């Protein structure tokens, strides 16, 4: 194998490994299982999409790399109930999940 071909192959393997590792961290919420909060303009957009979809309440928690979507926004409703809103990477609502008492 030529030297340039080996270099390109090595670079491709390294890039693939990095991409796979990054995806695993996002999907799993980090190596230690900790949730990664949404920040910056993404937080603003995700919050607005979730509140618009639910129609009431306030954002009380967020997460990037949620198992049901790219983003998860927890909304505490006016009556104290909680709803998780799952969004894709373009801030489109994929679904909601009401949390019941005793769930974390």
What's the structural blueprint in terms of helices and strands?
Blueprint: H1 3-28, H2 40-54, E1 58-64, E2 71-76, E3 82-87, E4 93-99
Describe the structure.
Mean pLDDT is 79; it is low at 17-25 and 27-31. It is built from two helices and four strands, in the order ααββββ. The chain has two domains: 1-34; 35-104, SHC Adaptor Protein (2-Layer Sandwich). The longest helix has 26 residues, at 3-28. Helices cover 39% and strands 25% of the residues. It has helices at 3-28, 40-54; strands spanning 58-64, 71-76, 82-87, 93-99. A four-stranded antiparallel β-sheet has the order 1-2-3-4, with helices on one face. Strand 3 and strand 4 form a beta hairpin. By secondary structure, the protein is α+β, with helices and mostly antiparallel strands.
Order of helices and strands: HHEEEE
Specify the number of helices.
2
Largest sheet: 4 strands, antiparallel
**Quaternary structure type:** single chain
Assign the CATH architecture of the largest domain. 2-Layer Sandwich
- Distance between termini? 55 Å
The residue-averaged pLDDT reads: 79
Task: Determine Rg (CA atoms, Å).
Answer: 18 Å
Could you say what the CATH topology of the largest domain is called? SHC Adaptor Protein
Question: Helicity range of the residues?
Answer: 25-40%
Shape: globular
CATH class membership of the largest domain: Alpha Beta
Query: What percentage of amino acids are in beta strands?
Result: 25-35%
Structural domains: how many:
2
Number-wise, the strands total 4
